[in-house]
Predict the 3D structure of the following.
Amino acid sequence: MLPGPPPAAPADPSAARGGFAVVDVEATGRSPWRHRVVEVAVVLLDASLRPEGEFCTLLDPLGPVGPTHVHRIAQEDVEGAPRFREIAPRLLELLAGRVLVGHHVTCDHAFLDREFARIGVPLPPVPLLCTMRLARAHLPQARGFGLAACVEAAGLGAFAAHTALGDARATAGLLRHCLDAPSCPPGDWTEPLRRAARVPWPRLGRARSRPSGEPVPLVLRDPARPAPVPAPRDLPDGLPYGPRPPAAPPPAAARKSTGAMGSTA
């Protein structure tokens, strides 16, 4: 089965620097220059691929939500959702010091890069790790290299496709599977971790409230259902953490490279 959310929320997940930030975005269209992010999710893994936390929210794209038939987000779902600039400070904290991971990660990176550029914040040259490329090298039995085909070939079970959190969780599971393959040399991921730890990241002041005085909301949808639900408010910054099965032991690659991993955390 795919990994779920972490067993408990740390007091401040962003304080645990280093590791991987597995990201997925749903957007109003295909072009980062013309379209906007309408949902974003981040699954945090430490340098040994152990889960640390999750972040997810729908976003108000300030216009049409785009292909509802694909991402199942309706216009009314984003009413009252935060704008990107309101969650940008938290995203920067979550991504800082980590390798950015995605399935066809250049696409997710391009959308995030453009959203940050719109608010005048240039993203640094963060190391990227693409699970699609990893699957081509270490999952040759896959019938294709889209996320669903790769997850099926890896035997990771069903997931909520075309939801940001569902896809990010699936990608995190696929990352573990590929990096644990005997054909995957530790250098394929230890070197990006070292480079990520040296990248200086910008910081922004948190958007604590809106001009009306209301707190900035997070709105998420259950990956098992398309309908959005309010983000829980009893956790720091409204981060949507939830229960999950006990974390699996780190893969063989992590165990074989403990010294290198520890130096980057």
The longest helix spans residues 164-179. Residues 1-16, 223-265 have pLDDT under 50 and may be disordered. Residues 100 and 109 are 8 Å apart (CA to CA). Strands lie at 20-27, 37-45, 51-58, 99-102, 128-130, 219-221, 228-230.
